[in-house]
């Protein structure tokens, strides 16, 4: 390679080609452009005009320059220029590229990978063998040196890990290095953090050859686990190197009520100048605090910037409901909830109110103190809540004792059946002493709690002996009567204290035992972190793990981690940071421990320190060739313009567009096509559909369904034409030419009225057509079904058309029908009619049934019928045939005989008029019903 | 029908196809101009009222003046003042140079010239004038609509030759003449023809029809200009250089024609095919209606 300043050339001899350029200049200059032939009648005026300059029309200098520069760029391009060619590092023998691979690396991992790749590429060029090792995942034994390319292939497998290498691991690996035969050079891409064991490893490396350390000066900030102090969350962070004052935002992330992860709160950690630690207190409402799943430093991609929270942060919500609260003015000490409040308030958030309110708050625990009777819905809601994992804690009391609850049948919300009345011991009116508590048995959750001497029970409700009683008792009195009973219900449980929650029946609520018992029942949370003793012998299964970039991933099946390891703390390969779940709680293991101290790494003078940044080699060949191509294209345009072949703005634009299109063709053509087609399908105006819509809506248009039977369709159209003529002549309705409508393809909503002659072989509409028809019927359209058979079948049998109609109507959303009643509004929308003949006169016309409660009021001519228009009219009188006229307006088909037939035709017409009026005006003729009442009110 | 006659028929039909179109276009154009006037102080064809007279058989029912007839029992017809017929000889350059149109959206000069001449003829015929066509293959002046059909046919024929000079043969003395051409050829025959016509007492109008490109000369670079027939050519290395001199020559040509018109009492105007023909027709109408 031959270098010239920051440029290097891979094929420098090609540059000799530049010598040719001046010659090219001379050649190009001498050749004038070819002439154009033009037809021009004005040539007669031109004859005799001489060109003033004999050689004026040469290629202009700037066009020559474009060409020369283009050729020059081609020559330069093929000479293989490279900007910032990498200089050789020198050295020989194997090369070890060492990465720390910790979370501190994660932030600029790609830069590290680039650097490692550059180093390996260099080694390959120099013929050196190489190996890449990340200290967080050191290989077993000594590194294996391979060809540089082979080593580079392994690079993508390396990823930063969310922990720091332990000193022991470093030492082990340093030990392994001694077994390598011969020396090697090392390039150590350091994460910049000091840690124990680094010196030993460095020593081992220096024994083998030179060590170069690549380290970028930058600040590392680590967020420590959040702690909970006096109701506030304390967040602290540490940084290195300590520098000027800085503010670092912290965000609390959790699931919002909708289940989406979002930022719930933010705070700012203010580092004072020179301080390595910063702290901030965050006060959150309990509801919000319970939702927090992690804290993180926004924008920092590192496991150290994320601190997971576990149950330690969570405060349980307890709902308290007392029976008969507010009935009488009570002293605080007699309040059934007073002692519960005192016991729970420090560790739990209390919700008080009516049961229905409390259930809505979805607390972890609901306490019912002496509540006997639950409202109908409340009992079900409560059982549902318990079955979903809630803990229902009930206390007895006078009300529960007096009620008949769970006397004969076990109540689902009580663990045992109760005897009537309860019992009283040690009172003035009873024998015996107040009873003390018996020691807790081993299977009781209270096992191990010390029982104070002075806890006595004066009164209690008594459980009825049942086969299941023994297993449900978890605390009893010295005489063996159950004091606390429990049963599982779904995923939750119901616990009953057979005494009151205040000191009326026993001194239990006064003692510390009460608090401990509540704690054991998980009523109050354990705010303290799990102790080593608690963790001993337990196994924890990782639920989700944090990677070095601070991303939380769900894990499916991972081997459990012994509790001792978790107690030890300090994340490592055997304890990756994440959330670990045990029997009844979760523990968060974070990349940064509470006592972690960050310090910048310091290196002895013997190592060579380098920055991380690499100046990238930039081959210029492609760019130069593209530049030359662009110049040549410009030359084409310029030449055309010069010779006058490029005439007019439009043509320039056209040519430029073509050139640009060829140049920009590069993006995937499929995508381009899609992009081009997408809007066209979306917004393409359909002139045909528009014309159809216009024709159908500019005037009232009667329409019939196209059945596919030519004869029927023609007759239907002729019939509607006849009806339209009659409407035009007699009413204010002035319909346009009737239309045939294809229910599969045409839009129906334009038509107020559809005439549907049913043929025996008509196709069943498709699903889309049914959807359209149902929408049409639901939004006020009307269909007149005409089987054209005068219902010849009758008496339960059906004609083919009738059967077809049934088949078609099966998919339609048709309300219940009834034969048209005498007072239907169709009988008087325009004409007063009592029969509805077509070509036949069959009285069976079906319309939507009137509501069952429609009754004829006293003195009213009609029933007060439903609102709205009947969506369908079904009949078989072949109306279209009676209506049908030819173009001259003469009836097409005979109806009946003689004048009687013409009268029937007239009535058919009147039915049609009534029908269209009914469609267009709705039921307003029904309002006649109110006429007598209105008249009466007017005093007439 | 034999094959030969069939082909003849097809050719004839193809040939005659543009004629009605040309006539229709010209009539359409002529409809934009209201007839003019030169009264003869007696009843006849004209636009001005002369007298009422009783309607006679043969009078067009449209001619009846209903307002006047309403006041009497008989129908009356309004007589117009008779306006004497002029004889106008039309000559249109049908040389090859006229078959030029720089852009498809413009008509060829020949087409525009024919339309204008025919439209003027229609106006004249409608005004009761006699119209004929000058030149060796000309038509003697006649009045009536049949003349228009003949004129249309005659105009549709092409003449050979790059540039054609007007021909005064067959022009009656003291008539009027209309010469439509691009006048780009040799000006001497034109001058000769006009002078000769003027000698015979013929007055008239010269209408120069030019394509916008001929007016602008928007050419650059090395170009070989050829006449429409290919008979003349001129090569230049820098067309752009020639522009100013060409325009000077064109202006000189126009000035020469204008001087000629002034000297002989004729009218001269230039029309471009890129502009609507109506203005040119108006000018023609005014020029030909000038009272002698």
TrEMBL record, chain A:
Entry keyword annotation includes GTP-binding: no
InterPro entries per the UniProt record, alphabetical: Aerotolerance_reg_N, Class_I_gatase-like, Double_TM_dom, DUF4159
Keywords: Membrane, Transmembrane, Transmembrane helix
Domain DUF4159: 702-920
UniProt key word Transmembrane: yes
Cleaved signal peptide residues: none
Pfam families named among the record's database cross-references: BatA, DUF4159
Annotated TM spans: 12-31, 61-83
Domain Aerotolerance regulator N-terminal intervals: 8-81
PANTHER family: BLL2463 PROTEIN
Protein name, entry field: Membrane protein, putative
Organism: Rubellimicrobium mesophilum DSM 19309
TrEMBL record, chain B:
Domain of life: Bacteria
Residues annotated as domain DUF58: 51-246
InterPro entries per UniProt: DUF58 (IPR002881)
Protein name per UniProt: Putative membrane protein
Species, as recorded: Rubellimicrobium mesophilum DSM 19309
């Amino acid at each position: 390679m031959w270098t010239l300043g920051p440029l290097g050339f891979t094929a420098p001899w090609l540059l000799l080609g530049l010598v040719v350029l001046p010659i090219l200049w001379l050649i190009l200059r001498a050749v004038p452009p070819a002439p154009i032939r033009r037809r021009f009648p004005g040539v007669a005026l031109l004859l005799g005009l001489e060109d003033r300059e004999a050689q004026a029309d040469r290629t202009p200098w700037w066009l020559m320059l474009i060409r020369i520069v283009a050729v020059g760029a081609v020559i330069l391009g093929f000479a293989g220029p490279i900007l910032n060619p990498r200089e050789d590092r020198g050295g020989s023998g194997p090369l070890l590229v060492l990465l720390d691979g910790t979370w501190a690396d994660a932030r600029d991992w790609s830069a590290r990978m680039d650097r490692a790749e550059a180093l390996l590429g260099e080694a390959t060029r120099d013929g050196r063998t190489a190996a890449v090792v990340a200290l967080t995942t050191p290989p077993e034994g000594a590194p294996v040196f391979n060809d540089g390319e082979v080593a580079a292939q392994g690079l993508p497998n390396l990823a930063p890990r969310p922990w720091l290498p332990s000193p022991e691991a470093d030492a082990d690996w340093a030990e392994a290095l001694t077994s390598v035969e011969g020396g090697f050079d090392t390039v150590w891409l350091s994460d910049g953090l000091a840690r124990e064991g680094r010196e030993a490893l460095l020593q081992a490396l220096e024994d083998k050859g030179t060590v170069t350390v690549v380290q970028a000066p930058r600040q590392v900030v680590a967020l420590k686990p959040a702690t909970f102090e006096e109701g506030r969350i304390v967040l602290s962070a540490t940084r290195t190197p300590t520098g000027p004052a800085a503010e670092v935002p912290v965000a609390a992330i959790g699931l919002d009520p909708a289940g989406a992860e979002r930022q719930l709160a933010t705070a700012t950690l203010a580092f004072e100048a020179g301080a390595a630690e910063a702290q901030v207190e965050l006060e959150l409402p309990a509801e919000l605090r319970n939702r927090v799943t992690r804290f993180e430093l926004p924008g920092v991609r590192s496991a150290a910037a994320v601190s997971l929270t576990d149950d330690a942060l969570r405060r349980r919500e307890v709902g308290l409901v007392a029976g008969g609260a507010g009935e009488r003015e009570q002293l605080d000490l007699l309040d059934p909830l007073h002692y519960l409040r005192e016991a729970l308030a420090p560790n739990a958030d209390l919700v008080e109110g009516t049961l229905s309110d409390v259930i809505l708050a979805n607390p972890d625990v609901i306490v019912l103190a002496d509540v006997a009777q639950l409202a109908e819905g409340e009992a079900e809601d409560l059982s549902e809540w318990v079955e979903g994992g809630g803990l229902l804690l009930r206390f007895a009391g006078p009300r529960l004792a007096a009620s008949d609850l769970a006397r004969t049948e076990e109540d689902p919300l009580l663990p045992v059946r109760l005897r009537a009345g309860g019992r009283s011991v040690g009172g003035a009116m009873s024998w015996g002493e107040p009873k003390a508590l018996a020691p807790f048995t081993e299977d009781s959750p209270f096992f191990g709690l010390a029982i104070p001497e002075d806890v006595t029970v004066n009164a209690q409700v008594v459980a009825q002996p049942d086969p299941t009683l023994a297993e449900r008792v978890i605390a009893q009195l010295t005489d063996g009567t159950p004091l606390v009973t429990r049963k599982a219900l779904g995923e939750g449980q119901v616990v009953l204290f057979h005494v009151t929650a205040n000191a009326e029946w026993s001194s239990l609520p006064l003692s510390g035992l009460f608090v401990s018992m509540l704690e054991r029942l998980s009523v109050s949370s354990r705010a303290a972190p799990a102790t080593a003793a608690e963790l001993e012998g337990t196994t924890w299964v990782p639920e989700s793990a944090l990677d070095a970039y601070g991303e939380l991933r769900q894990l499916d099946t991972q081997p459990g981690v012994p509790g001792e390891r978790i107690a030890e703390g300090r994340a490592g390969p055997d304890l990756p940071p994440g959330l670990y779940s045990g029997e009844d709680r979760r523990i968060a293991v974070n990349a940064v421990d509470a006592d972690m101290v960050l310090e910048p790494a310091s290196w002895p003078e013997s190592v060579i320190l380098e920055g991380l940044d690499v100046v990238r080699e930039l081959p210029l060949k492609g760019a130069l060739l593209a530049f030359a191509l662009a110049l040549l294209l410009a030359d084409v345009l310029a030449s055309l313009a010069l010779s006058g072949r490029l005439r007019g703005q439009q043509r320039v634009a056209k040519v430029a567009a073509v050139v640009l299109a060829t140049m920009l063709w590069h993006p995937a053509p499929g995508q381009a096509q899609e992009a081009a087609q997408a809007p066209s399908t979306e917004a393409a105006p359909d002139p045909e559909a528009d014309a159809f819509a216009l024709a159908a809506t500019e005037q009232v248009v009667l329409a019939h369904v196209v059945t596919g039977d030519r004869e029927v369709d023609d007759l239907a159209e002729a019939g509607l034409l006849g009806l339209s003529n009659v409407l035009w002549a007699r009413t204010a309705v002035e319909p346009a030419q009737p239309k045939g409508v294809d229910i599969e393809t045409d839009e129906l909503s334009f038509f107020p009225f559809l005439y549907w002659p049913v043929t025996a072989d008509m196709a069943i509409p498709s699903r889309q057509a049914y959807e359209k028809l149902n929408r049409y019927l639901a939004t006020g359209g009307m269909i007149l079904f005409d089987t054209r058979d005068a219902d010849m079948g009758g008496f339960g049998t059906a004609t083919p058309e009738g059967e077809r109609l049934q088949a078609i109507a099966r998919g339609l959303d048709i309300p219940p029908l009834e034969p048209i009643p005498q007072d239907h509004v169709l009988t008087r929308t325009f004409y007063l009619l009592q029969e509805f003949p077509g070509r036949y006169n069959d009285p069976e016309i079906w319309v939507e049934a009137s509501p069952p409660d429609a009754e004829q009021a006293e003195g009213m001519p009609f029933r007060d019928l439903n609102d709205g228009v009947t969506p369908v009219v079904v009949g078989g009188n072949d109306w279209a045939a009676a209506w049908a006229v030819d173009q001259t307006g003469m009836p097409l088909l005979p109806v009946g005989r003689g004048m009687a037939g013409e009268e029937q035709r007239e009535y058919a017409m009147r039915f049609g008029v009534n029908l269209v009026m009914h469609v267009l005006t709705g039921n307003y003729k029904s309002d006649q019903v109110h006429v007598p009442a209105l008249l009466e009110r007017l005093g007439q | 029908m034999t094959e030969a006659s069939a082909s003849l028929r097809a050719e004839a039909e193809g040939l005659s196809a543009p004629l009605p179109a040309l006539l229709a276009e010209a009539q359409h154009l002529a409809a934009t101009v209201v007839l003019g006037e030169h009264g003869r102080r007696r009843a006849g064809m004209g636009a001005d009222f002369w007298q009422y007279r009783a309607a006679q058989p043969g009078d067009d029912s449209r001619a009846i003046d209903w307002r006047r007839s309403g006041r009497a029992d008989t129908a009356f017809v309004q007589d117009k003042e008779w306006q004497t017929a002029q004889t106008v000889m039309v000559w249109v350059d049908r040389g090859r140079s006229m078959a030029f149109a720089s852009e498809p959206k413009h008509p060829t000069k020949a087409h525009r010239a024919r339309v204008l001449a025919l439209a003027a003829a229609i106006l004249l015929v409608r005004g009761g004038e006699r119209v004929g066509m000058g030149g060796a293959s000309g038509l003697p002046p006649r009045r009536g609509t049949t003349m228009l059909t003949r004129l249309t046919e005659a105009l549709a024929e092409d003449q050979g030759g790059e540039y054609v000079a007007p021909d005064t043969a067959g022009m009656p003395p003291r008539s009027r003449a209309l010469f439509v051409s691009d006048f780009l050829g040799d000006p001497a025959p034109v001058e000769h023809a006009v002078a000769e016509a003027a000698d015979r007492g013929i007055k008239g109008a010269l209408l120069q029809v030019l394509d916008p490109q001929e007016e602008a000369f928007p050419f650059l670079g090395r170009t070989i200009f050829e006449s429409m027939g290919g008979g003349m050519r001129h090569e230049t290395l820098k067309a752009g250089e020639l522009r100013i001199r060409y325009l000077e020559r064109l202006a000189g040509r126009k000035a020469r024609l204008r001087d000629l018109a002034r000297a002989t009492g004729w009218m001269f105007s230039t029309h471009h095919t890129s502009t609507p023909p109506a203005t040119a027709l108006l000018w023609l109408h005014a020029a030909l209606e000038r009272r002698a």
